[in-house]
Specification:
The chain is mostly helical and 74 residues long. The protein has one domain. It contains three helices and no strands.
Length: 74
């Protein structure tokens, strides 16, 4: 497993320590790995959503009509 040294402000280090003390993570590395996994999932989901949008084609509706419909539904 690769190692990475990161400099953090004291407040961020305190936050990480609090997450570990809370019992959800065994150590700081475990917490950081979890953050990275969450970011990877979010970015992948965003890529998929963008591709689905691009592949869905174009709408014959005007932006103003779409906005009016959204406001009407609220």
């Amino acid at each position: 497993m690769a190692s990475l040294n990161v400099s953090l402000p004291d407040t961020m280090r305190s936050w990480i320590d609090a997450q570990v003390k809370g019992g959800d993570f065994s150590n700081a590395s475990d917490y950081i790995r979890d953050l990275i996994r969450m970011d990877q999932r979010k970015r992948e989901a965003l890529k998929i959503a963008v591709l689905e949008g691009l592949n869905s084609g174009t709408s014959p509706r005007q932006i103003e009509d779409i906005v009016k419909d959204i406001k009407r539904k609220k």
